[in-house]
Amino acid sequence: MNLLIMQKKISIGNCLLILCLYWTASALLPGLLYASDFTPVVLVEYQFNKKSYLITGEKTAPHTYIFNKGAQKKISITTLNWAPYIGENICRQGWVQQLTIALLASLGYEITSTFLPWARTVAVAETGAADILYPEYFIESTAPSDVYKGTNRIEHLALSRKFPGGPISFIKRKGEQDLFKGNLFNLKNEKIGVVRGYQNTPEFDAFMDIGFFNISQAVDDLMNAKKLVNNRINLIIGDPAVIRFSIVSSTLSQNEKQRMLQNLEVVQPSIQYNYLYYAVSKKKPFWKTTLQTLNAAMEQFETSGLMIDIIKTVNISCGFKMPEVLQPYEK
Questions:
Q1: pLDDT class for 198, splitting at 50, 70, 90?
Q2: Least C-beta-crowded within 10 Å: which of 22, 44, 96, 214?
Q3: What pTM value is reported for the model?
Q4: What is the DSSP letter of 303?
């Protein structure tokens, strides 16, 4: 089997990040290197504080990868498939995974990362079966726990400092009038597509709950995009990067993908920018120490520029179009 290795170097400030792209035969998972026994391997390679790091992640069980194997300290983290931010089978497993592994490896951890459906991911973290849940939106103080009835999620999880996320926006057909104009009151009775079970923003969801909009539910973002292009609804709500990726990675023909992408337009301004967080399980005896050291590493990565380097390099190398991610950091 032929293996083509490409390197891309980006230097910003005093930070140098080197990430290697490994392309394998199309029958294998894209963006993953395969060992001689066809075990998927994910690599994270970078330089920080004048020290070089090469972290290898090997698949050890279904949906489970161990990175930095043999390190003295151990940590268990749990996540979901949320492409192109993070995903088990996408290139480099996405920038959120690359950043997370780099952060925890810099703290000397052996990292066990498991991909699960979102509801199970939350349950694993709230019960203490994992140390960290990621990525997470800000947890409102009134958000109820789905595991411990009668309690709130924030009683079981502690949030880290924030890191880049993405916007929640409306998307319309290209060239059509923008009725939103930054004010939800302008959209009374408007036909809007949502994904069933998704949280959007507190204000939009509150309006939706009282029947202010004419809501059409779909099972996923791709179905919503199809309905919008085919004039069955007038707007959809979601993260533009996730919606774009759902189209590009679908089984639709190339002509249909191109038609959809050319006929969709993100409405400005966005409704809300959602930062991301790590949620540390309070069920672990040393959770305060975990949170403190994680926050310190995140601050170092951010102030040095390495956090932004990782995001930009992964997205450019993998061809992920996510310009909205860094908008608050480029003002």
A1: confident
A2: 214
A3: 0.82
A4: H
